[in-house]
Write a structure and sequence with these properties.
Blueprint lengths: L15 E6 L11 H9 L2 E4 L7 H6 L5 E2 L4 H8 L4 E5 L6 H13 L6 E6 L8 H15 L8 H21 L2 H22 L9 H14 L2 H4 L7 H16 L14 H14 L12 H14 L4 H23 L2
Parallel strand pairs: 1-4, 1-5, 2-3, 2-4
Length: 330
């Protein structure tokens, strides 16, 4: 391109510039049909990044690509006469070129070519999870704190983040909910990254995702199979039946974590017994523990989460305490 080429005649067709953007989260070469059409019809295809992941696939498909970083003026000159120039954007999106084109258009001194932004590949839902995995890989390798963490060392953070998520849900704070979901997701990805380093039994985040996908499909035969479910109770019955087949448990209490909060534990045991059709009276005993157990069983039978109910009451109690503090300060 010659920056000193003669000025085009006013009647000349100013042509067309196509800025082709691609997602690094999609395998190279998987471009949309409009993108391939634009590439095949282009008079010139330019790319400033000689290491762009798409270049080998474009050349293999018979599309010649020039490794060049033209200025806005050079691009405009190259389009004169009705020519089409496709610019394969780098990861930064070619801000210098687009800013230069915007300045030329704003000057009113240049007849501008038609400008088109053409996304050649799109992120699929969940694509940013790939970024999270990549970021976690780097942090695990380079961060002095993260590189030394273990499953046991991180366990307390998983519990804390889960409680903070529950609090965000109960408070109805949407911004906080989004953030806390991210914190919980981080714990999953962090543990999976650590698990990759186990010398005998390694597994990755893909193994974790693959396992839960298989479980969900198996436990939803009314969605992925031939069974039917018309009510939530039908769905729950499918879930419990397939879960029992998978686990082959000798007791309905197996799999109930005893380390969870007491009210939640009591309600879970009551739910397992009720679902199994077992009529088990609450043990008779003295003391607050047995009283709380009885309340938890009654709440579960009534469809009330005793843990959530107690937290709601505790928040009211907290507000009352704050009000009393404010009165005391007057």
């Amino acid at each position: 391109m010659n920056a000193h080429s003669p000025a085009p005649s006013p009647e000349a067709d100013p042509g067309r510039v196509v800025l082709l953007t691609t997602s690094h989260r999609v395998a190279p070469g998987l471009l949309s049909w409009p993108a391939w059409q634009a590439l095949h019809a282009a008079d010139r295809v330019l790319c400033a990044d000689g290491a762009h992941p798409q270049l080998p696939y474009l050349r293999e498909a018979g599309t010649p690509v020039e490794e060049a970083a033209p200025t806005a003026e050079e691009i405009v000159d190259a389009c004169v006469g009705g020519r089409t120039v496709v610019v394969v954007a780098t990861g930064e999106g070619e801000p210098a070129l687009t800013d230069g084109l915007a300045r030329l258009a704003g000057s009113g001194r240049v007849r501008m070519p038609e400008l088109e932004l053409l996304p050649a590949s799109y992120d699929l839902p969940g694509a940013r999870l790939l970024d999270l995995v990549q970021v976690m890989d780097r942090i695990r390798a380079e961060c002095p704190w993260s590189s030394r963490q273990t499953h046991k060392g991180l366990a307390k953070y998983g519990i804390e983040e889960a409680y903070e998520l529950v609090e965000a849900i109960e408070e109805g704070d949407r911004d906080e909910l989004r953030e806390e979901l991210g914190d919980v997701l981080l714990q999953v990805v962090f543990h999976a990254r650590i698990a990759e380093e186990h010398p005998q039994e390694p597994f990755s985040v893909d193994d974790v995702a693959g396992g839960i996908v298989a479980k969900l499909i198996h436990r939803h035969p009314h969605v992925f199979g031939e069974e039917t479910a018309d009510t939530p109770d039908d769905v729950k019955a499918h879930w419990l039946r397939t879960k029992a087949e998978e686990k082959r448990r000798s007791s309905v209490t197996e799999g109930v974590p005893l380390g969870q909060p007491g009210l939640a534990l009591s309600a879970k045991l009551a739910s397992r017994a009720r679902t199994a059709g077992l009529d088990v009276p609450v043990p008779a005993g003295e003391g607050v523990g047995y009283e709380l157990l009885g309340l938890a069983v009654r709440a579960e039978a009534a469809g009330v989460d005793p843990e959530a109910a107690l937290r709601a009451a505790a928040r009211v109690y907290r507000d009352a305490i704050r009000a009393a503090e404010g009165q005391g300060g007057d």
